[in-house]
Amino acid sequence: MDPLKVVFLGPLASFSHQVCVAPQLKVTISLLDVGFANSRIQAAAESFAKSSSVLLPQASFADAFSAIQKQEADYAVIPCENSTNGSVVQTLDLLADRNNQYNDVKVCGEYYLTVRHCLLVNKGSYPNGWTGYDGSIRKLYTHPQVWGQCDKFLSQYFKDIERQDVSSTSKAAEIVAEEPNEKTAAIASRFAAEYHGVNVLKENIEDRADNTTRFLILRNVLVERTARLDLDISSLTTTQDESLNTHKTLISFSVNHTSPGALADALVIFKTHGLNLTTINTRPSLRRAWQYIFFVECGCTPSDQNRDAVSKALNDLRQVTEACRDLGTWRDRLGQSRSRASLLSLGQHYFDDSRMGKCIQPHGSDTAT
Ligand SMILES: O=C(O)C(=O)C[C@]1(C(=O)O)C=C[C@@H](O)C=C1
């Protein structure tokens, strides 16, 4: 089999890259035979970081979506929500797919990563560390999602300092590394500091110790081989009895805003089919002001009834909505029975260079370990 190709927001050492090389994120090649649906033969279980996967950093989430749609990659790892700062709106906008560019892209898995942020500066610029910091940093770089995750620290120490959004935390560290004579700093991970050769001036600057980002794993539904691969994110939470593993389904829809009760009519359908709603999000429809696309995540217990319930709900939704779309079903990794301790161990990572995975940089130079 050709190596699996996995796309994510680069450059290397972004949080998205850390998810790709998480040892807990395993792909099981299941020799699933339609006639033997209950007797799965698990041929191999490997993390994306193993040499059988090729990691392809992308400049944007849109590039990752497009690589999946064009079948240039098997999986995309995309952040969708942070426990401190809420939804990643760029991801919701891509899932909204207002111009029908990503018709075949669906969610097939999720992963929760504990996110620890550091303030990064050029090597040698503050030899006495944070205790000797003289207040001279004039500009900060990071991904727009991060400001709200470090709000308390930033309000206390960097209140009136210029903030510049960049495409990822790793990009922020790269920029600082390229500006040795500027009084600038990046907010990114310790892993990004090591990779880009900059120093950690202050670590754990996130507001909350439980700061966690949920990532979605995407695939193209027309690609047969990804249908045969099972994303096994942690044996901690998976039972052999499929009906006990809860599943989530993501559905987007829009309703006629001038019709009273249109949203209520849509939502009651989930209740009718025993589908519990776990989140609701909205984004502007961009067709008319103050009209929205709704995103609903739902699931039912026991989960072997999920598929049937979802397909009935979708049929009914088509009757009462202007448009609706099934954006995929995957195994719930947060599950109600999950203890916080196991969630933390699921998302905690310690990186060294041997864990970078086999990566192909956009300009062609490979880093393989
Ligand atoms: O910038 C990165 O390193 C990313 O992978 C993106 C991203 C995000 O968009 O939420 C991922 C996790 C953290 O919440 C911060 C940034």
From TrEMBL:
GO CC, any one term: cytoplasm
What is the protein named?
Answer: prephenate dehydratase
InterPro entries noted in UniProt:
ACT-like_dom_sf, ACT_dom, Chor_mutase/pphenate_deHydtase, Preph_deHydtase
EC code: 4.2.1.51
Q: Name one GO molecular function term.
A: prephenate dehydratase activity
Q: In which pathway does it act?
A: Amino-acid biosynthesis; L-phenylalanine biosynthesis; phenylpyruvate from prephenate: step 1/1
Per UniProt, the enzyme's principal EC class comes to: lyase
Upper classification of the source organism reads: Eukaryota, Fungi, Dikarya, Ascomycota, Pezizomycotina
The UniProt record lists the Prephenate dehydratase domain at 5-220
Under the heading Pfam families, the entry gives: PDT (PF00800)
Please give the catalytic activity noted in the UniProt record.
prephenate + H(+) = 3-phenylpyruvate + CO2 + H2O
Keyword annotations for this protein, in alphabetical order, are:
Amino-acid biosynthesis, Aromatic amino acid biosynthesis, Lyase, Phenylalanine biosynthesis
Q: Where is the ACT domain?
A: 251-331
Q: Which GO terms describe its biological process?
A: L-phenylalanine biosynthetic process
Does this entry carry the keyword Signal? no
